Amino acid sequence: MVTAQDAFDYMAKVFKKEEAKAYKKTIVITYNVAGPGGGTWQATIENGEFKVQPGETISPVTATVNYIDAECFYKLVTGEMNGIKGYATGKIKFKGSPSVLQTVGKLFPGKKKAGLI
């Protein structure tokens, strides 16, 4: 069973720090992952750094993403599932700017683009 922590560990491994330095504003994304291995976390991208913490204590939030389970979250961040398909099938729901989520998604390449498969 994969967990949300597995997804965050992957994200930390492939994070494009140099590209993230181009963002001038702080980005805060709340991740709500339902089911076993899930929970609520917030990820912050600021000054080229990526940090994750449990809970929901940082505001303002740039975007909130809800996943039906940890496997869905893991597949999305590793590139095994397309975000548009996940949204269209109801596995992913979000609040906030879709363009911010797409832009942030480029900072975390899927396994193929990261050279991991």
Description:
This protein has helices spanning 4-14, 17-20, 70-78, 83-88, 98-105, and strands at 27-33, 39-46, 49-54, 63-67, 92-96. The chain has a single domain (4-105), classed as SCP2 sterol-binding domain (Nonspecific Lipid-transfer Protein, Chain A). Helix 1 (4-14) packs parallel to helix 3. The radius of gyration is 13 Å and the shape is globular. Strands 3-2-1-4-5 form a five-stranded mixed beta sheet. A hairpin with a 2-residue loop joins strand 2 (39-46) and strand 3. By secondary structure, the protein is of the alpha+beta class.
Largest sheet: 5 strands, mixed
Low-confidence stretches: none
Q: What is the level 1 CATH name? A: Alpha Beta
Range of strand content: 25-35%
- Tell me the structural class: alpha+beta
User: Order of strands in the sheet with the most strands?
Assistant: 3-2-1-4-5
What's the gyration radius in Å? 13 Å
CATH architecture heading: 2-Layer Sandwich
Count of DSSP-assigned helices: 5
Percent helix, as a range, is 25-40%
CATH topology descriptor: Nonspecific Lipid-transfer Protein, Chain A
What's the CATH H-level superfamily name? SCP2 sterol-binding domain
Distance between the amino and carboxyl termini:
20 Å
Key features of this structure:
Nonspecific Lipid-transfer Protein, Chain A; alpha+beta; 117 residues; 26% strand; 5 strands; 5 helices; globular
TL;DR?
This protein is of the alpha+beta class and 117 residues long. Helix content is 32%, strand content 26%.
